[in-house]
C-alpha cells in the first residue's frame, strides 16, 4: 500500500499545533458555481487518491446540515486550507465568511493556508478590483454591516499576500499539471516524514547517499530514462531498511509510488500472492482501491497498459525468482519516463538476469555503528551503560556488523543483569540464536539443489580460509560441480572471496551451516554427516562408534589447527587413536588431521577419500598397508616426518595436488610416474630435499612447482625442462640452487619464474623463447662479474609484466639496453643496484610501479612513461636530475627521501593534483623549491597533506 494511505490527520504541521488532533488534512474553500464540478472536484479527487483526507462541502455535509457551525468545525479541524479564488468567489458571503475563519485559524492555530488563483489575478483579490470590485459593490449596497465587509476585505488582502500558485502563470494553464504541482506543495506543507517506519536508522544517511548515486533521481541528464537498481546482500544486513529510507527520501519526486514488501514471503504464503502484489502495485500507483486483478497474465497486461504514463518509484523487496520480477516489472517500458525500480535481493544472479543498471552491495555496520544500533535495542539509548561496555563489545564481535543479529540479541538482553548477559553470551558460542538462524536459513533453503547445499555445508565445516581454486578441485572430486556451485553461493551472499582468493563466510552463516548438520541427531555425533568439534570427533574415535553417515572429519590434536615446526620437534605430544576407529566410516570423503597419530593396521581405512590433509604426519613413509585411494584429489602432509614418501608408489589416478611442505627430513621427492593427473607439487621448505625424481617431466598436467626454501636442492633433472604444462616455477630461497638448464626455453607454458636468493649466476639465453613469460624475479642473485646475469637483449619477452632484479649488484653494462622495449611491463624493481644510469623507459606505456630504491650510484632518472603511478627513488644519494613530470598526470606516490643532491623536480607543479603521497625526508633543496612553488600555485595546506619530511 502507498505510504500516504497510512498517513492520518494526527500528523502535526507546526510547533504551535503539535498537540492538536486533526480531522482533515485539507479544507477546500471555493465558489461552487465556478469550480465544484471542474477544477476543485478534480483537485479533491487527486488529494484523495494520494491518500489525503480533504474536506469538500457536498461530500461531508448533507444539504439539510449545510450550516455554518459545521463548516467552521471543519476549517478548525484541518491542517491546511486551500482557497480556490475564482471570478465569482467574492460574490458569496458564505465563501467570505469561510475565508475570515481560515485566516483566524492561521493566526490562532498556525494553520497552513495556500491560495490558488484560478483564472483571476492575485492583484484583483488583494485590492478587490475587477470582478471582486463588482462583488463588493453589491455587498456594500446590501444589508451587511460595514465592519463585516471590512473583515472580508482584510481577509482577501492577507490571503492574496500569501505564497500561492496562479494557474495562468503555471504550466501554461494546464490544469492536470497544475493539480500535480499542488499535490507536491501539500506534501511539503504537511511535512510528511518516515512514511515507512524505520526504527533507529543508524548509519542510514551515508548509505542512502551512496545508493542515490546509482539511482540518478535528481540528475537532469537521467530525467526521462527508466532505471532498475539492485540492493544485494546477505539476509539481515539491512537491505529492506535501506530501501525504506530511499522511499522516504524520494517518494515526493514521483507521480506514483509503491513499496512491495516481503515479495518472496507473500508469494510463498498467500493464495494468489503474485496476483495480490500486482494488484497492490496498480492501486498504489494509480491511487485507486478499485483495480481488480484475477490472474498473473491479466496483471501483466494491466501493468503494461496503465502504468507507462506514470513516473513511478517502485520498490520490490526480497525478490528471489525471475518469474516474480517478470510479472511485476518485466520491462522498463512498463513504467513512465523517469521511473525508478529498486530491487532488494540475496541473489546477485537474479539482478544480472534482469539486467539492472547498477547494483549496490549492502555493507555490514562498522564497529561504531554496530555499538550504537545495539545500544538502542539493549538500553533504549545511544550508548551502553558503563558497566556493560565490555559485554556490549563482546556482542558486537559476535554479531560482526549484522543488524539482524544486533537487534535480536540486543532486544533479548534488554533490562537483564550482567550475570544474565554473560550466561547468554556463553550460550551463543555453542547454540546460535534461533530467530537469527531462521532468517539466515532462508538463503540456504533457497539454494537450487542438494549438491549446492552440500558445498555450503562442506565449506562451513572445513574450508573457511582455504584457497578457492584448491577447494574447487576437491569438491569437484566429490562430484559437486563446485565451479558453478561456489559461484551460486557467492551470488546468494552465503560465501565471499577475499583479496587473497580465500573462501570466507560470516561467522553466523558458518554457525547456521553447522546447526543444519546437527539437525535431527543432536547429541549423537556418530550420526552427523560432518564432524569438526574436537569433543565430538574424540568421542566417536575413542568409542569406535563411527558410521557410514559420516562424510567429513576434522580433528586438531593438542597443537590446535596450526601445526608448526616447533610442534614437529616434539612428536611426543601427538593425540593418538587406533586406525581401526575409521573402519566403519565407509563414506568418508574429507579427512583433516593435525597433530594426530593413528596406531595399528591401516588395511580397513576408508578407501573413498577425496581430501587427506594430515599435518604432522608421524611416519617416515606412507605404510604399505595404507589402502589405495582411487578418488584422492589432494594429499597434504605438511610438517610430516617423512624421509621417503612411499616405498612403492601406488596408482593415484585422480591426485591433483601433492603438498609435502615443511617435511624437514625428506631427502628426495616421490616417483611421479603413477600420478598422471598431478597439477600442483608443493615442497616448500623441505630443507633436506636434494633430489627431484626425473619422472616429473612426464607429467602432462603439472602446472605449479613450488620448491621455495629447499636449501639443499642444487638443480633439477634435465627431464624437468621437457615439461610443456608447467606455468609457475618457484625457487625462492633455494640457497644451493646453481643453474637453470638451457632447456628452460622449451617450457613453452611457463608464465612465472621466481628464483630470488639462489646461487644462480646466469640465466640461460633460451629464456628469450618463453613468449608467455609474465613474471620474472631474480632478486638477491649474485651473478659472476665474468658473465652477465641476463641476456643482453630482452625485447622478445613481449608478455613480461613484472621484472624484479633488486639487489643483484647490476652495473651499467649488466642492465639490458633494450629494457625500454618490454611493452607489457607493469612493475619494474631495480632497487639496491650499482648502475649510474638507465636507458629510457618512456616507451613502457603500461608501467605503473618503478622501484629504484637505494640505487646509491644513480645520478639521473631517465624519461618515464606518463601512466606511471608509483616512483620509489628513496636512498638514491647521488641523484641529481629528475625527468620532466609535466605530462605525468597519473602519478600518485613519489618517494625521494635521502636524495640530498636533488635541487628541482621539473614540471612537478603540473602533477601535484594527482598526488596522494610525497616522501622527501633529508631532501631539503628540492623540498624548499617545492614549498615555494606550492605557495604560488596551490591553496594553503595542500602540500602539508602530501609531503612527509623530517
TrEMBL record:
Entry annotated with the keyword NAD: yes
An annotated Gene Ontology molecular function: ADP binding
Matches recorded under PROSITE patterns: LRR (PS51450), TIR (PS50104)
Keywords: Leucine-rich repeat, NAD, Plant defense, Repeat
Residue ranges of domain TIR in the record: 22-190
InterPro entries: AAA+_ATPase, Apaf_helical, Disease_R_plants, Leu-rich_rpt, LRR_dom_sf, LRR_R13L4/SHOC2-like, NB-ARC, P-loop_NTPase
One family name in Pfam for this protein: WHD_ROQ1
SMART domains: AAA, TIR
Record flagged with keyword RNA-binding: no
One GO BP: defense response
Protein name: PREDICTED: TMV resistance
Organism: Prunus dulcis
Lineage, broadest ranks: Eukaryota, Viridiplantae, Streptophyta, Embryophyta, Tracheophyta
